[in-house]
Amino acid sequence: MVVAMGSKHQHCRSSSSSNCISLKFSTIISAIVLLSTSFYLLISPVKHLPEPLSWAAGRKARFNGDLRDATFPWNSLCFGQNHNEKLKLAVFSKSWPIGAGPGGMERHAATLYQTLAARGHEIHVFTAPSDRKPHVDIHQGNLHVYFVANDHGSVNCSLAFEIFNTINGREAFDYVHTESVSLPHWRAKVVPRVAVTWHGIWYEIMHSKLFEELLLNPQEVSQKPVVAELQEAMPRLIDEIRFFPTYTQHICISNSAGEVLVKIYQLPEKNVHVILNGVDETKFVHDLEAGVRFRKKHGVPENVSLVMGVAGRLVRDKGHPLLHEAFSTITKTHAGIYLLVAGSGPWGKRYEELGPNVKVLGALESSELSEFYNAIDVFVNPTLRPQGLDLTLIEAMHCGKPVLTPNYPSIVGTVVVNESFGYTFSPNVKSFVEALKSVIRDGPKVLQRKGSICREYALSMFTATKMASAYERFFLCMKNPRFCQYPLPTDC
């Protein structure tokens, strides 16, 4: 399938660029609050799900039929070994991880495509380096990564399509896959076989803006750009709902996002699928000795009663104002609590100002992350972004750590499916402090038990092997409908 392209180069435009209609701020807030309420009533679990492993096993045991009809994560099924049918996939990704500190979407992409290539499939990735510096293309076995950055360091779509058309002309790709809008919708129109994985949708982003707004002090409201972003939220959401059908198939990384695409975005249920993110289970492992070494290396006092950890970009929308205030409050009455902060960003210096109970580590290399998780008693994710599926949560779970996280539908309905995994809170300081008190009250022994349950569940759902196996079967299904049947004789 050779795609005809114009001779002029076009750079990627923002997926949400549109002539937004002007709406009054009060109207926008009312609409958002209304949608927020409907969102939670629609998707939030009314009660906890059963124990995780029996739940996953039940899915596997019960399902028999066309995978395109599955309304639960494909990761909970067990697919057989490669069917000796090789795929040739074209991939468009926002960036490729270089060095320390890349975001979760980049790390997800690298893990997925490296694993698919190792399974024998021919993978061609059109992307830009995460550090925005010049790099030579990568050609390692079946994996081919083309760095096609423009002058600003983002993907040059026209250059990517020139290379895409050349490779496609030699032997047609079986399918095209894009990470979110890395392949813009106006480009997707000319690609007949394209699937998109959504790492965040505007319906969820709209809630992020709302939570950020509610966290502000009243005197700050008029000074923050989030107000303007809230005013634009509804028009952007409408624009997104209108262009989503441009993509043929849609993959969501949380159960809640899948329901939104069907019930709010009105996409056909057969075109919406849930495949959860996974991380390399050989890199993120439970290792008590590694944790002890990490504590000694970074000077964690031996007499602390409990060590909490947070990782990621130290920016406002990741919830660091929330954690900063909550931790400041809790240490006034619990002096033995210690916080390890892994990451870089403007909130790093503010954490350092909290005194000896906090250690800011800076951005860690991927090889150090597992040691970091093993060094803590509980992993804290204070994010104000109820979207996507944060890799740090499942990395920590793989290392046998319980989690403390907001009670968003994308998290509670997919990752923290019951209280045995850890603790949840509403995204405000009071609720966060109460959750911290629960963690402290339970103490290290209870946290260890919860961490063991987290690890067991992560190994059953959130591994690179499970993720790649689900994506492999998805693309085989799209190529040949006979692979849509489950179980096949070769399935486990």
Automatic annotation (TrEMBL):
Q: Which SUPFAM superfamilies match?
A: UDP-Glycosyltransferase/glycogen phosphorylase
One Pfam family it belongs to: Glyco_transf_4
Provide the alphabetized UniProt keywords: Glycosyltransferase, Membrane, Transferase, Transmembrane, Transmembrane helix
Q: Which Gene3D superfamilies match?
A: Glycogen Phosphorylase B
Q: List GO molecular-function terms, semicolon-separated.
A: glycosyltransferase activity
The chain positions of domain Glycosyl transferase family read 295-445
Record InterPro entries: Glyco_trans_1 (IPR001296), Glyco_trans_4-like_N (IPR028098)
Which residue ranges traverse the bilayer? 21-43
Residues annotated as domain Glycosyltransferase subfamily 4-like N-terminal: 102-281
In its UniProt entry, what is this protein called?
Glycosyl transferase, family 1
